[in-house]
Design goal:
904 residues; alpha/beta; Leucine-rich repeat, LRR (right-handed beta-alpha superhelix); 29-stranded mixed beta sheet; eleven-stranded parallel beta sheet; 54 strands; globular; binds 2-acetamido-2-deoxy-beta-D-glucopyranose; signal; leucine-rich repeat; receptor; Leucine-rich repeat-containing N-terminal plant-type domain-containing protein; LRR_dom_sf
């Protein structure tokens, strides 16, 4: 017995263990129905879900993204964020309602999945226990299902970009009223343009802790606090909307706020002292509005503030009184305001500061190592474009390692700050537009050599050879333009590659390179073709010579901007340019290029800016230019030897704003339907060209130079050709035109009256043509006209008197038209008009009759005239008064005659 008794204990133990094991085995496994539901869901996704190996296991509670209840084993959470592989809409996805088998689900996350052409499934509204729903960045189509009203237990709803902006139609938000448990609501990106009361059902106000309506196209917001009763709100983000009203005052009463974002929302007004009540704030963003006034001192109460973004407003005043008190700050962005005063040294107390941006203000005084010495965590420093003088002790050893250094326009120089040598992780360094005047120190190319991607030294007086970079350079963006660099492009690399066998650096990272406005010589080396990533190449205003490498077109397939203007280059445009399918700006003016336009340019359908002026190109304008290059906005062929007719197809260039065909050998007539240049036929004051284009526009007799990013004015220039025929009256439809030059052709006929409809015209040159008739009175209404030249035509009659034409009083602008009269060429018109009218009458058959009448008249006044002839003083007095009464009598006589002839 004792043995059996002894035996019993381990047996019992075994049994216990077995049952326990059995129990745990059964309870640890997920419910079969739920497992099947999940598999059905995956099948419905048609293979677009990423591979999740764990989903092959038996127990679905162990599957990636699936969380079960610890005891009931029901699936309670489904976290399928970023689970869809990019299917690009090729595959039909269906979110299977089988998921409804997950009856205990309280957390559903489908965020960051790009669903293609799939609406938000209505059945989601039937998950009765759902507390957390995240559909952000999933780009469903359609609207929010009304069934969502049933999600009464929902505490957090994130619909940020849940709907595709292109394919959404959001109705009202009535379903929201039912979600009375909601605390966190993010409906960013739902376009609610008609929603006048954006503030959602007021029953939600009290309980909400987060309200995020970023980019909802909202246009109105209550200003009065009586409609608003947020008492627990911690996060309020209503940025990126179009409120266009004053900052709402009720915001400053929500003392629970920790995160407030009112940026990009078209708010104006001032920041009130009341902001001091928001003592819990850690994040404040009022950037990119129209806020003005000073920054109130009460801001010093926000002692927890870590991030302060006020950039892009019109804030004034100084930093002195407040900034050093906000000691928790890690990020300050006050750029693009009109702040003045100095940068206080107290900024050094902000020991946690990582990012300091004060660019584009009116700050004065000096900044030196004293300001920055304690900022051990500083990574971003942007002081560009103030009136600051930034200078450092050459021996200073900074306590920080910067990532972004923007010190443009800071009067730095003549040396490059020596402390930069010690910075090992700079990503972007901008010292442009300073006073650096040394030759580049050799250490500069090694500054942060393993991290530097952008180096910008434009607009200094740096001398000597170009810096020599190693193949390992990570540079993406190199701008050394507008300096005094000498030597050749070869100098960018240490060996003379053209004569050695050394492997050439591929420099394949480089995207943007600008070496314009230097003193570089030599040819464009073939190794440029190895910079295969290049999209922006500016070598203009140097003394480069030779031809454009043939390989350039074949290799630099991503090239968008090519500017080689103002060099001594020659040869043809390589036919390989037909491979530059992305080319948008091709600027080759002021060189010695020749030959015809290669037909392969037809491929460059993105061209918007083409300047070939001041070269020796020849041949016709091929008709395909109008057909293929329909994006052209600026098209300049001036000062070449192009010939032939101007093809009608040019009128297809509807985007054209500057057309310069001047000083070639074009013949034939002007294109008739000029109104087809629709961009010129609509009013826009000016247009901006995105990047660096060197452009010389001849206006008002002189040249206007647009060296960099610039506003260009619309202009049409056909001058200096052999064009014949009349000026088409259609020209009056180009109401957006600022400059019109048709001079030095053989245009005939009248100046069309319709020119007066181009009300913005500033410069008009019709000189050296065969234009006849009178100057239309309508020209007198051109209020912006500041230059006119009508000289050397056959114009006649009185120069119209009008506000503008008379102030343009230089008579040389009318000379060479012997029959023009009136100010500014002569004081009166009587003699001239008489001669003209008499001449006109000579065409009529009754001329003899009139002569008889005139003779009679003359006889009648002979006595009077005789006296005039002999009495000198009387004669002078008479001719002085000629404008007044003699004119009138003569005119009356002529009228009579005209009436007589009319009755015939
Ligand atoms: C995807 O699933 C649907 C049914 O949901 C089916 O009609 C379709 O053929 C499947 N395959 C693709 C590639 O879309
Ligand atoms: C869910 O919503 C639909 C539509 O709004 C409604 O017809 C249905 O009765 C609701 N179901 C429950 C259980 O509330
Ligand atoms: C605001 O809400 C609180 C409770 O959430 C309530 O006591 C108070 O009366 C409300 N005030 C207004 C003006 O609605
Ligand atoms: C908002 O705060 C101001 C003072 O900052 C106070 O005068 C006003 O009564 C408050 N309004 C509400 C609705 O609490
Ligand atoms: C700086 O940040 C640290 C945490 O990174 C924090 O403990 C400390 O209090 C901060 N200093 C100030 C002055 O806010
Ligand atoms: C930097 O720290 C030192 C030592 O803590 C202090 O004496 C000095 O005033 C600080 N400088 C600035 C600009 O705050
Ligand atoms: C381009 O680079 C490759 C590899 O570095 C080199 O072999 C080739 O000669 C280079 N070509 C030119 C035109 O520099
Ligand atoms: C024009 O582009 C196509 C590719 O879109 C290319 O195959 C063709 O060779 C190009 N034509 C010329 C003349 O370069």
């Amino acid at each position: 017995m004792s043995i059996s008794g002894n035996m019993k204990t381990p047996l019992l133990l075994l049994l216990l263990l077995f049952t326990l094991g059995f129990l745990t085995k059964t309870t640890s496994s997920c419910l079969a129905a739920e497992r099947d539901a999940l598999l059905e869901f995956r099948a419905g996704m048609n293979g677009t879900l990423k591979r999740m190996p764990s989903w092959e296991e038996e127990d679905c509670c162990n599957w990636e993204g699936v969380v079960c209840h610890p005891t009931t084993r029901h699936v309670v959470k489904l976290k399928l964020s970023e689970c869809i592989q990019d299917s690009k809409g090729q595959v039909h996805q269906m979110i299977n309602s089988s998921l409804l088998a997950l009856t205990e689900l309280n957390h559903l996350d489908l965020s960051y999945n790009h669903f293609y052409n799939v609406p938000i499934p209505k059945f989601i509204g039937s998950f009765k226990k759902l507390k957390y729903l995240n559909l952000s960045n999933s780009f469903f189509i359609g609207g929010i299902p009304l069934e969502f009203r049933n999600l009464t237990h929902l505490r957090s709803l994130d619909l940020d970009n849940a709907l595709d902006p292109e394919q959404q139609h959001v109705g009202d938000l009535d379903w929201l009223t039912h979600l009375s448990s909601l605390k966190h609501l993010d409906i960013s990106g739902l376009l609610l343009p008609s929603l006048t009361d954006w503030l959602l059902p007021s029953n939600l106000h009290g309980s909400l802790t987060a309200l995020i309506t970023r980019g909802c196209n909202l246009i109105s917001i209550p200003v009065s606090p009586s409609n608003v009763n947020f008492t627990s709100l911690e996060i309020l983000d209503i940025s990126d909307n179009h409120f266009h009203t004053t900052l709402p005052q009720w915001v400053w009463n929500i003392t629970s706020l920790t995160h407030l974002d009112l940026g990009f929302a078209e708010f104006y007004g001032t920041i009130p002292e009341a902001i001091g009540a928001l003592t819990s704030l850690t994040y404040l963003d009022l950037s990119n509005n129209y806020i003005e006034g000073t920054i109130p001192r009460a801001i010093t109460h926000l002692l927890r503030l870590e991030s302060l973004s006020l950039q892009g407003n019109q804030l004034s005043g100084s930093l002195g009184s407040w900034i050093e008190h906000l000691t928790s700050l890690t990020l300050i962005d006050l750029g693009h305001n009109i702040l003045n005063g100095s940068v206080p040294t107290g900024i050094g107390k902000l020991s946690n500061l990582t990012s300091l941006s004060l660019c584009y203000n009116q700050l004065q005084g000096s900044v030196s190592e004293i300001h920055l010495e304690n900022l051990t965590r500083l990574e971003v420093l942007d002081l560009s474009y103030n009136y600051l003088k930034v200078s450092f002790d050459p021996n200073w050893v900074p306590v920080f390692q910067l990532v972004l250094v923007q010190l443009s326009g800071c009067e730095i120089g003549p040396q490059i700050p020596r402390w930069l040598q010690l910075q090992t992780r700079i990503d972007a360094l901008d010292l442009s537009n300073n006073k650096i005047a040394e030759t580049l120190p050799s250490w500069l190319v090694n500054v942060s050599s393993s991290t530097l991607t952008s180096l910008h030294l434009s607009g200094n007086q740096i001398k000597g050879k170009l810096p020599t970079f190693s193949d390992a350079s990570r540079l993406i963006n190199l701008r050394l333009d507008t300096n005094q660099f000498e030597g050749q492009l070869d100098d960018l690399f240490s060996c003379n590659y053209s004569s050695t066998e050394v492997q050439l650096p591929s420099w394949s990272n480089i995207l943007e390179l600008s070496l314009s406005n230097n003193k570089l010589e030599g040819v464009i080396p073939l190794f440029v073709c190895n910079w295969t990533g290049l999209d922006f190449l500016h070598l203009s205003n140097n003394s480069l010579t030779g031809e454009i490498p043939y390989c350039l077109g074949e290799s630099l397939k991503g090239l968008v901007t090519l500017n080689l203007a103002n060099n001594i280059l020659f040869g043809k445009i390589p036919t390989t340019f037909g491979s530059l399918l992305l080319l948008a700006q091709l600027v080759l003016n002021n060189n010695g290029f020749s030959g015809q336009l290669p037909s392969s340019l037809q491929n460059c359908t993105y061209l918007s800016y083409l300047d070939l002026s001041h070269n020796a190109f020849s041949g016709n304008i091929p008709p395909w230019m109008g057909e293929s290059l329909q994006g052209l906005q600026v098209f300049r062929l001036g000062y070449n030897i192009f010939s032939g007719d101007i093809p009608q197809q040019l009128l297809l260039l509807e985007e054209l704003k500057i057309l310069d065909l001047s000083n070639n050998n074009f013949s034939g007539s002007l294109p008739y339907y000029l109104g087809n240049f629709t961009a010129m036929a609509s009013i826009s004051r000016s247009f901006e060209f995105t990047e660096y284009v060197d452009l010389v526009i001849p206006t008002k007799g002189g040249n206007l130079h647009y060296p960099y990013k610039s506003d260009l004015t619309t202009s049409l220039d056909f001058s200096g050709n052999n064009l014949t025929g009349e000026i088409p009256p259609e020209i009056g439809r180009l109401i957006g035109l600022h400059n019109l030059n048709l001079s030095r052709n053989h245009l005939s006929g009248k100046i069309p009256q319709e020119l007066g409809e181009i009300t913005l015209l500033e410069s008009l040159d019709l000189s050296f043509n065969d234009l006849s008739g009178t100057i239309p009175n309508s020209l007198a209404d051109l209020n912006f006209l500041s230059y006119i030249n009508l000289s050397y035509n056959n114009l006649m009659g009185r120069i119209p008197s009008g506000s503008q034409l008379q102030t343009l009083s230089d008579p040389s602008r009318y000379m060479g038209n012997p029959r023009l009269c009136g100010p500014p060429v002569s004081s009166g018109c009587s003699v001239m008009e008489t001669v003209d009218k008499v001449q006109k009458m000579r065409n009529f058959e009754w001329i003899w009759l009139s002569i008889a009448v005139v003779l009679g008249f003359l006889l009648g006044i002979w006595t009077f005239c005789g006296i005039l002839l002999f009495k000198r003083e009387w004669r002078y007095a008479y001719f002085r008064g000629i404008d007044s009464w003699y004119d009138r009598i003569l005119l009356q006589l002529l009228f009579c005659l005209a009436r007589l002839s009319g009755q015939d």
